[in-house]
Amino acid sequence: MEVCGQADAFEIVQVKEGEVLNLHPGVDLTEDDQIQWSYVSGNLSTRIAKMNRGEIDTHYDERFAGRVQIDKTGVLTISNIRTNETGLFEAFIIINKQISEKKFNVEVLGTSHGNTTTTTTPTTPTTPTTHPQMKDFSPRNEDYPEHCGVTEVLVRSVLSGLVVIATAVILVEHLCCSVRGRIQSSV
What we know:
By secondary structure, this protein is α+β, with helices and mostly antiparallel strands. It is built from two helices and eleven strands; from the N terminus they run E-E-E-E-E-E-E-E-E-E-E-H-H. It folds into two domains: 2-137, Sandwich (Immunoglobulin-like); 148-187.
C-alpha cells in the first residue's frame, strides 16, 4: 500500500448557506476504486460517505441525513449546507492499492436579515493528520449484518465448544446410568 499526495495541502471552498456543496476528489474513479469522505470539525473527524467497489453508503452521521450523496465518480454533494458545517472535508481514495487524499477547507457563508453576508470562520483540526489503513475502507459489521467480527466469531466458537462438552457429559452420564441399571438388574 502506497500513500500519495500532499498531506497538508487543501483547497478553500466558499458556499452560501442553503446552497448545494459539490466536492470533486480530483481523480477519475472506477467501480473497483474506493473513496471515503470525512468531515472534520475541531478535533472530531466523522465519516459521512463512502464508495467501496461500487457500493455507496451515506448513512453515517445524522447531521447530514438525507442531504449527502456520492456519485459513481466519487463527487460528494451536500444539499442545503449549513453554517455549522464549516470545516475540513477530506477524501481518502484508493486506486490500484495506492492511497491518496484530497482536502477541502469549506467555509459556509451565512445570511442575515438585512441582505448582508456574515462569515463563519473555518475551523482547522488541531490533531495531526492520520492516513487511513485498508481496514478503514472495509465494510463495518454494522453496515453488513450478515458479517460478524473476530470477537463474535470467538464467542460463538467458545459457546459451540461448551455445548459440545455439555452434550458429551450428558451422553456419558446417560450411558453410565444405563450400564449401571443393566448390571443391577442382572444381579
